[in-house]
Amino acid sequence: MTNPETNPAPHAAGGHLHAPSAWNVPNALTVLRLVLVPLFVWLLLRDGGHTTGDRLLATAAFVVAIVTDRFDGDIARRWNLVTNFGKIADPIADKALTGAAFLGLSYLGELPWWVTIVVMVREWGVTALRFWVIRHGVMPASRGGKLKTVLQAVALGLYLLPWQHLAVVHWPAVAIMAAAVLVTLATGLDYLFRALRLRAAAKRPLP
């Protein structure tokens, strides 16, 4: 995941700064993730989500997309391939993937709608907060935010499996999703307070 707060400086050659080309591996992985979203939704909702083969393929598509999210940012930062396209497309791809999973599962009646609403309000709310304070500073991703992402990914992956009738699959999915919702709410409040403090500090007159 491309995080603008941790991006390295562009390559320097001959005393001049050169922005990396948008045609690179990290951006290709981000585009792949975006392309996988409609395929994932189609597989998940096909035949009402009751076909074991389609559910396994949907789960596989989700896992592949999540893995690309893990590696594209690492590659971009390590090789100084961070681009404006990546900064914009990466979070869009992230929210499109997880949002599609939450909405799809709720549409199928396998996940309560209130869970999906709480998570999506938090996700888009934090995005709005970042834009609200962008003139005053940045809010880097917190450890809680990273934990939230991991918990959501694991919980969604378990919910996508076609064996929810088995206790060994269903109850771990429920427990991890409950933890994900709690961390989602807690980190959302944390981001809100951080945004308010950032704006207050920016408006405070200099001594």
Automatic annotation (TrEMBL):
GO terms for molecular function: CDP-diacylglycerol-glycerol-3-phosphate 3-phosphatidyltransferase activity. It is an enzyme of class 2 (transferase). Its EC number is 2.7.8.5. The keyword Transcription does not apply. InterPro entries: CDP-alcohol_PTase-I, CDP-OH_P_trans, CDP-OH_PTrfase_TM_dom, CDP_ALCOHOL_P_TRANSF_CS, Phosphatidylglycerol_P_synth. The chain crosses the membrane at residues 25-45, 169-193. Gene3D superfamilies: 1.20.120.1760. GO terms for biological process: glycerophospholipid biosynthetic process. It is a multi-pass membrane protein. It is found in: Membrane. This is CDP-diacylglycerol--glycerol-3-phosphate 3-phosphatidyltransferase. GO terms for cellular component: membrane. It comes from Kribbella speibonae. Its main location: membrane. Belongs to the CDP-alcohol phosphatidyltransferase class-I family. Pfam families: CDP-OH_P_transf (PF01066). Keywords: Lipid biosynthesis, Lipid metabolism, Membrane, Phospholipid biosynthesis, Phospholipid metabolism, Transferase, Transmembrane, Transmembrane helix.
